[in-house]
Amino acid sequence: MDSQGVRTLCAQLSYTSGLRYTWRKVFKTAAFNRSATSPRSSPCGGKLAQLNNRQGSSVPSDRCAVWKLLTPAAQYRFLNGARNHRRDLELVWFPRVTRGCLDCYDPRNTVGAHMKVEITDLLDLTQEQTALIDMHSVVNIMNVLINELDFLQEAFQEGEPLQRAVDEIQQINYRLRNSADIETELGNLLKCESHVMKLVRAVLDAHPKAANDSDVRGSVSNLQSVFAILDTRGRELLARVHAPEEWTDHDVEQLTKNFTNVLAAIEKNSKGRYRIVHNIAEQEQQDYIVNFSIDSVDGTAIHMPPVLQDVMRDLIANARKYTGPGGEISAGLADNGKELRLVVEDSGRGIPSDEVQQVVEFGKRGSNVDDKATMGGGFGLTKAYLVTRRFGGRMWIDSSPGAGTRITISIPRPAA
Known about the structure:
- The protein is of the alpha+beta class.
- The protein folds into 2 domains: about 5-115, no CATH class; about 125-410, Heat Shock Protein 90 (2-Layer Sandwich).
- It is about 45% helix and about 15% strand.
- It starts with a helix and ends with a strand.
């Protein structure tokens, strides 16, 4: 994106109008006026016309120049703003810095038309696939642990002790997916941290100089952080082994704290590649901005199946994974007394329209993300849909390539 062009436009609008214009304000004021050929017809249109008539104006004169300057994420945010104001319109007004200033533009010719699709196909899963999905929340974390241990093996050129740690985690991973005694294996999972970290500390003590390397220290710190999350997930799974479909009360403040901790762990695992912030005033170019909220008719508590925490975490992690740094992610959970409603929205890559129904199938991803390496198995949406169906709910996906994705889940509350 040529951000200088947008900054130039905003600066000149500010100069000619005496008001401060950001590109969001430019679009918001100009985009919903059918005709801007006259200064009287649009509060912004007249200013844009003046700019085009100024000798030597550097504002782009091509009919779509300003629009093309924006990244798909920025286009998507503007599109959503337009829809929020004109939900009944199939066409959206887009800015055009030329004599007419505005034109009627079909979003399918730009970033793609969003289409909200209800997922209705039945999942055809084997018993092994269902077990893997049920363990999805811990399997992914164990993959992160293995990745960190592989890094330390390479850093220290120390194969045997750290390989024993990797083997132990892999064995637990396998047994969790294949053993009939899940309760015992979850207990083994919760015990493995002390043994693995003991092996890691032994290697650090044997190589004090290498142990002081900043990357090594970061990797060890990340191991400890990931183990803390694994402990939480393991205890959650243990708690619902005997009653997987039970609804329980959850403290809203604690739930919010849990998700804040998950986001902090995701940021830490990036090892400085990006930050996750919650205040737009703090956002830098490589930062994700994440908005998250929980509301309940019951006030400080929300009544829900515990497994829904897994779904929320998976969907937020997916949104981050397929949204580039600088993107925006919004997530919310609400209980109005009749239903639970979960929404996760991002400004990322989106999903091809003809693949929306298929991306919930086991191990399936959109064809436009084949180049994206992940440590997951592609089960996040599958689990979200499986859980939704288990509790008699409905799920919708609203997405298009380059324009982000919005996932909505509605689950009816059980009768009192």
